[in-house]
């Protein structure tokens, strides 16, 4: 494999963990090179936060050489050639060059090789099929990875349909990578292949879909990409139900306009077109309990404007600040209402604790039972409507008043 060019060596390429792993491999006569996201980001001038290494050493040799060098090794995916080597307390994924022998759209049977071009040919996108020596020597086996990266073109390696049949998740990855790194139109052949094979997304696990979708939703180009997915008929295969890309685009604009960080759960809620669709979407995407609860609350919480700060605080107390903010933004994404005042309360105000409890009721001689809860509910409602100003003594006095009146 011939070098394509040489780039300047930067700090991450000299990282002690990388040096330790590369030295261990070289000690056995093998080559290790940086690959994937770190190399892509370096070419794009973006930050590099972690790195992976590809090697022509078989997984068993990687294990033996790195252990002999005193490094901790974990065979995290050894059947696919991946060993996690911990050096200087930093985990580094080291993967043997490989080719796909058999695929079913979800997983692959691989064979190991020492051919770098063969390894590049099975990768997803050209800008991810770049290799880099620690001295800055850059390799581009597909012949177009460097140019595509610098032009912000996200293109499949080789035939797009073949790459998708190898792993259907690559449909979502095309959109996620374009949203994160792309510029201009989506690659037409890639988009056409994705549209043609979109029904096969039904075979993907919900966990894999949500992992990709959640990253897509917070990428800089998420809005444009969601519209493209909807127009190509791909978004409707995310789950069994309609997808509202237009509301998601409007919500993204609202988040940006109010200086809010991109929020994948809120943006997912905007995509769910039906108010009662939260449960089915949460089940399909295998959301965690906390994620499913938030999605449901975002779609079920009243989104109408409260009118004044006292009513806004009452809504936050009843439903929670996150749910109120989500609901108001979701409504505003359809109505273009001004939500600045609502967000200021929902995201900054911390509700107080109700200052009395069941013991205050039974202290009046009222036996435990349903009446205790009913009296507390009435006093709490009075406390809320008074904008939470009453303290414990005032709440007890109101409790006594209600109880004495037979309430």
Describe this structure in words.
The chain is α+β, with helices and mostly antiparallel strands and 407 residues long. The chain folds into four domains: 151 residues, Beta Polymerase, domain 2 (2-Layer Sandwich), CATH 3.30.460.10; 81 residues, Orthogonal Bundle (cca-adding enzyme, domain 2); 111 residues, no CATH class; 47 residues, no CATH class. It contains 20 helices and ten strands. Strands 1-10-9-2-3-6-5-4 form an eight-stranded mixed beta sheet. Helix 7 runs parallel beside helix 9, helix 9 crosses helix 12 and helix 16 packs antiparallel against helix 17. The mean pLDDT is 95.
Give a brief outline of the structure:
The chain is an alpha+beta fold. It has helices at 16-27, 37-44, 59-68, 116-121, 145-150, 160-166, 170-181, 188-197, 206-217, 222-231, 245-257, 264-271, 278-285, 289-300, 309-319, 321-335, 340-348, 358-362, 370-385, 392-404, and strands at residues 3-6, 32-35, 52-55, 72-77, 82-87, 90-96, 98-103, 108-112, 131-132, 137-139.
Task: Provide the descriptors you would attach to this structure in a database record.
single chain, alpha+beta, Beta Polymerase, domain 2, cca-adding enzyme, domain 2, 4 domains, two-stranded antiparallel sheet, 20 helices, 10 strands, 50% helix
Question: What is the succession of H and E elements?
Answer: EHEHEHEEEEEHEEHHHHHHHHHHHHHHHH
Question: What share of the residues does DSSP label as strand, in percent?
Answer: 5-15%
The strand count comes to: 10
CATH topology of the largest domain: Beta Polymerase, domain 2
Computed Rg = 28 Å
Cα shape: elongated
* Straight-line N-to-C gap: 86 Å
Strand order of the biggest β-sheet: 1-10-9-2-3-6-5-4
Class of secondary structure makeup: alpha+beta
Q: Which CATH architecture of the largest domain is right?
A: 2-Layer Sandwich
Range of helix content? 40-55%
